[in-house]
Write a structure and sequence with these properties.
The chain is 38% helix and 16% strand. It is of the alpha/beta class. The chain folds into two domains: 180 residues, Rossmann fold (3-Layer(aba) Sandwich); 138 residues, Phosphofructokinase domain (Rossmann fold, 3-Layer(aba) Sandwich), CATH 3.40.50.460. Helix 1 links the parallel strand 1 and strand 2.
């Protein structure tokens, strides 16, 4: 049966992630090939409401696959926090005669997509978040590049740590899930990994460093810590007292706090490097470009087949399947104990 969809909207929402432009490019080019008009929604949901929407042409998506960020720009929005917001979004979409929408984003974005789909508008999600904490997909767009950046930082910082007999603490992103910290720890050989899923004791950290230095004769160490990690005594509290547009506490600084505690307790020279947005702004590595292509291609297939209310998810073995948004929203994919054990043993 021929699809009734003539115009597809594309929106990028939430934090930017490497590979987002590859998603936009694939969706637009699929539309061009099918005789469908791709429409870009700029500045996320707030841009939709303000009417910052226009038809995309081939030059708009030419040569963007290798670039970081998103040509549609992104933002965190409070839209969909009130009961009448889905209808407000539908009315805005109707102004441009859009028949379907591809939502490229993380947990908040897919929650918005689910609300819109429940209200009767065809929506399909593409998982995009460097935190890799979306249920329903083995991997999210942007995660692999973020891990590569963190791993490269560990490799580089090891030289200065060894040269100055320092403990180098590296803080990476990860509010609720420590996927970046764990995979970078394994790949980069960090000596200690600290993540939100496992509360830790500062005394245990100090003892592990003592054993490494005094028993094994290593005069430097590398510690990687996710921004949302917390010690059991809650002495290291990275919540800064301010909140973002979604009302969540802003994080940052737990690595610096840990470095200070190491110096205070052990008397060893310790420094912290916070990678921050460097994890987001790198050019996407090839695996992220390929993942973005596969997921976005399937997302268009689902829309054209009338299969809204789903997210394109990567499954074990490399296949893509349609995951109902209701099975994604309100859940969090966290690091398993078995996987964390690899960072503990092989870091």
């Amino acid at each position: 049966m021929e699809s009734t969809i003539k115009r597809i909207g594309i929106i990028t929402s939430g934090g930017d992630a490497p590979g987002t432009n590859a998603c936009i490019r694939v969706i637009a080019r699929r539309c061009f090939d099918a005789g469908i008009e791709p429409w870009g929604i700029f500045d996320s949901w707030d841009g939709l409401i303000s009417g910052n929407v226009r038809k995309l042409e081939r030059p708009d998506v030419a040569g963007i696959v290798q670039h970081a960020g998103t040509v549609l720009r992104s933002a965190r929005s409070r839209l969909f926090l009130e009961p009448g917001d889905p209808q407000k979004a539908k009315d805005a979409l109707a102004k441009f005669s859009l028949d379907g929408l591809v939502v490229i984003g993380g947990n908040g974005s897919q929650a918005a997509s689910a609300l819109l789909a429940d209200s009767g508008f065809p929506c399909v999600g593409v998982p995009k978040t460097i935190d890799n904490d979306l249920v329903g997909t083995e991997m999210s767009v942007g995660f692999q590049t973020a891990v590569q950046e963190a791993t490269s930082a560990l490799d580089s910082l090891r030289a200065t740590a060894e040269s100055h007999s320092r403990v180098m603490v590296v803080e990476v992103m990860g509010r609720h899930a420590g996927w970046i910290a764990v995979e970078a720890a394994i790949a980069g050989g960090a000596d200690i990994a600290l993540i939100p899923e496992h509360e830790f004791s500062l005394d245990d950290v100090f003892e592990r460093l003592r054993v490494r230095h005094d028993v094994h004769g290593r005069k430097y160490s590398i510690v990687i810590i996710a921004e949302g990690a917390m010690d059991r005594a809650k002495k290291l509290d990275a919540r800064r007292g301010t909140r973002d547009v979604m009302g969540r506490p802003r994080l940052g600084g737990v690595g610096t706090m840990l470095a200070h505690e190491i110096e205070r307790k052990l008397g060893w020279d310790s420094r912290c490097t916070t990678l921050g947005y460097l994890q987001r702004c790198a050019a996407p590595i090839a695996p992220d470009r390929l993942l973005a292509t596969k997921l976005s291609d399937k997302a268009v297939d689902y829309l054209l087949a009338g299969q809204g209310g789903v997210m394109a998810g990567l499954i074990a073995g490399g296949g893509i399947e349609a995951v109902p948004l209701k099975d994604v929203v309100g859940k969090l994919k966290t690091v398993t104990d078995d996987y964390f054990r690899l960072a503990e043993i092989f870091g």
